[in-house]
Amino acid sequence: xxxxxxxPAQSTPTRPTAAANxxxxxxxxxxxxxxxxxxxxxxxxxxxxxxxxxxxxSARYAGYGVTAEIQPGQAYQIADxxxxxxxxxxxxxxxxxxxxxxxxxxxxxxxxPDPPAPEPDPNATAPPAVSNNPPxxxxxxxxxxxxLVCAAPTDVKLINGAGATLEVVTASATNVLVxxxxxxxxxxxxxxxxxxxxxxxxxxxxxxLGLTDGQVIEIKSGLTGDETVAVPGPNLPPGESTxxxxxxxxxxxxxxxx
Length: 258
Known about the structure:
By secondary structure, the chain is mostly beta strands. It folds into three domains: 10-63, no CATH class; 64-110 and 142-172, Immunoglobulin-like; 178-239 and 246-255, conserved putative lor/sdh protein from methanococcus maripaludis s2 fold (Beta Barrel).
């Protein structure tokens, strides 16, 4: 990849700013900073070898936005896809739809290179120019987490530092087979459930898992929808029994229905 030299912005850019070219098979792909934001620095040295999805440029958005720190357990789920975000400002406006600007890896601001030094004048008596850029102390490889960023509608008044609650939808599904998460061992792609047999024994069955909201999880294949599934599921510690053995209670079976 190769960076362009970007002059300091004199005002908020109204058009995208070309920041770099990434070359693949001798063909360049332009990397641009979105309109409304300014160049904040380079995240890798010029002429570095980079891979798809690797952050290379840092930009600073001009204006108010809503940001949310993402818990590590939700980082991949959030980063892989965002459908909608709704925001409620604490003791303020909302709920309102928030225009998702993306997720960022909370990276350092980056390095802004010094302008090229002028050719030395043999007749000059002044001392050499000193860079005004402060030394870069950020460690780009430090673990910094994931942050979601979205922009509120223009008619919503925002106050810097105000708290907010975000409802984030990464995907949705209707008319699907689901089970309580307590009945399933596993949470990504593949899992297991215990199906109750007529003689009262359990049979562990492999299932393909889909979406989850933290309470129920989608079963994409492996069950027909007519089984009775044990709760808790395989390899999960038993909960406190209610003693009545009723379906759905802790330690009791749950009947699967579509």
